[in-house]
# Entry
Amino acid sequence: MTLAMSLGISIGVRRTLWMMGGELVGIALVGAAALGGVAALLLKAPGAFAVAKLLGGGYLLWSAYRAWNAPADLANDSSRVVVSNKALISQGFVTAVSNPKAWIFFAALLPPFIDSDKPIVPQASMLLGAMLFIELICMLIYAQGGRVLRDYLSNRGLGQWLNRIAASLMVVVALWLVLG
# Structure
């Protein structure tokens, strides 16, 4: 959600949809893997888990560095940092897949909702579909909030401050991911 808000601030809601697509694919992958038992394997292999956390945190810190150094004039669309759609998709995917709390959450939450006496694929599909829909709605709300915040602060000449807020939020998420 923090990533959606910070990207809503820096690049707008429409461009943030690319990140959301990557994030939703990553969440679907994590959910499907949790249902398949990969989460239990990762919990038994803390080294692999730690590497995933460090890689995800490093990527977020790099994104925060870029946001911190972004141009301050947010009212002028030509001054915005240009980020490719592929980079946004990748950022969303890496953020979702490298989040250990998502793995733990899915491993704990999903299995109790599956009835082993009924076909698993339709149940898992409905459960993951509902979770992805809720995630998308929440990310859209956060991204829209970021865009409104950007408009509010840019009209008052506080664009650099806004960039630093977005970068700081990404640093907090990275630290939470690595140290949490």
User: Anything to note?
Assistant: Residues 120-154 form the longest helix (35 residues). The chain has a mean pLDDT of 81.
